Amino acid sequence: MKLRAMAERVRVARWMPPGHVRTPAYLRGRVGEVERRLGTFPNPEQAAYGLPAEPRELVRVRFRAADIWGAEAERPDDLIEAEIYGHWLEPVAHQD
Amino acid sequence: MQDDDAKILPIPTRAEGRRWHDMGGEDAGPVELCEHDYALWEKRVDALMVICSSKGHFTVDGLRRALEDMGEEAFETMSYYERWVAAINQNLVEAGVYTLEELGRRMEEVRARGATYGEAAAPHEAAGDG
Amino acid sequence: MAHDAPFAHSGMSPSGHPYRPDNDEPLTYWQCMEIAMRELLIEKGVTTPEEIARQIEAMDARSPANGAALVARVWTDPAFRERVLADASDAAREMGFDIGPLRLIAVENTDEVHNVIVCTLCSCYPRNLLGLPPDWYKSRAYRSRVVREPRAVLREFGVELPEHVTIRVHDSTAEMRYIVIPRRPEGTEGMSEGELAALVTRDSMIGTGLPRRPE
Question: Is C123 a catalytic residue?
């Protein structure tokens, strides 16, 4: 389960608006790679308030434990994967 | 990771807006390997959730929003389906399915029927009795 | 392990949980609200007593046995395994399970990877296939810790993984639900699909347990 060299890398926004969002705090500001794209779903940040919900892309993102917890990671190369809505993600340029 | 800018920022704290239900990574004690079967009233709450959301009276996100807004004290002091019935009610009232007046009157009637769940539900016991 | 008793075990409910007392406790405020809400919804034509009864029956019919049957078929049918990994919802429907709108992703354990499922934000669970989740799955301790220290949490469940195994924790944050396909135990060559399904525990499909070993 090695990270692929040319994987598409993304950073999760570190926004902290109050209210209903589906981006866990522990992943905000973290960099991971796109595991797969799931298509579009109604934006939960609008649906939660009974509003018409616009379609938003949903992406499964894979993070290394060390990229979330730093030196406190139980095992640096363990993986955490989560579904993140596209408007929370920005591309990260490859450094290698 | 070689990124200059990939320094590990601290996870946002509660003071920075992290909400109580957003628990991933927080400190907590050992996992208590407990479970219980669900009582009839709990199964009914679950059924009403599925039926009302499938008919468009609210969304799962509307339920989650209400559960989150009930706060941490509700999480610590109310059971799972107590929180759910409260969240379903919140969404049904907001959607205008019934009014608080109707609910208040009916709850008074229900309570007057008897001291136990079985007695209070009796006139409509056929309803959703599995 | 007491928390993962066989779901076919006598003394367990159809949904795989221990029974508990029901209707003769003092009426609580929230039970009173459930009765009042249900009556109002019926009177206003939103639902009917029959519809509620059918929904409860459908939920009671869902249990870890459904997932165990799917896992056993994955273990014995390579073409079905491919279909499960491509689209687990379609594969579950192909087996005849009524999973409603469930969007299911199957994640397969190998000798190098062990998968674990959680929902840190609430309590999302593949309920339309496996039935309702155990209480511990919804607990603060499990939701908080399994993303940060999965190995310590698994140890509390009695699962010790070899050093070389990578753990993949799947946080069910949005629309997908997950089922772990555990590794087929050694010494099960020649066993039937039904015999294999009896080895598949609920916790092994969440990732907090391993399948039983054959007697």
Answer: yes
C119 is catalytic: yes
Over the stretch B65-94, which tens digit does the pLDDT of each residue have? Answer: 999 999 999 999 999 999 999 999 999 999
ipTM of the complex: 0.93
The pLDDT of residue B61 is above 60? yes
Judge: B115–C27 Cβ closer than 8 Å, yes or no: yes
Count: domains in chain A:
1
Q: Is C123 annotated as a binding residue?
A: yes
Task: Please give the Cα distance from C114 to C102 (Å, whole number).
Answer: 23
Question: With a cut of 50, which residues of chain C have pLDDT below it?
Answer: 1-12, 19-20
CATH superfamily entry for domain C64-206: Nitrile hydratase alpha /Thiocyanate hydrolase gamma (3.90.330.10)
Q: Look at residue A4 in the predicted model and tell me its pLDDT.
A: 55
Per CB distance under 8 Å, which residues of A are interface residues toward B?
14, 16-20, 24-29, 31, 42, 44, 47-50, 53, 64, 66-70, 92, 95-96
Residue A32 lies in a domain: yes
Which of B61, B70, B92, B97 should one mutate to test binding to chain A, selecting the residue with the greatest count of A CBs within 10 A? B61
Contact present, A61 and A90 (Cβ < 8 Å)? no
CATH of domain B36-124: 1.10.472.20
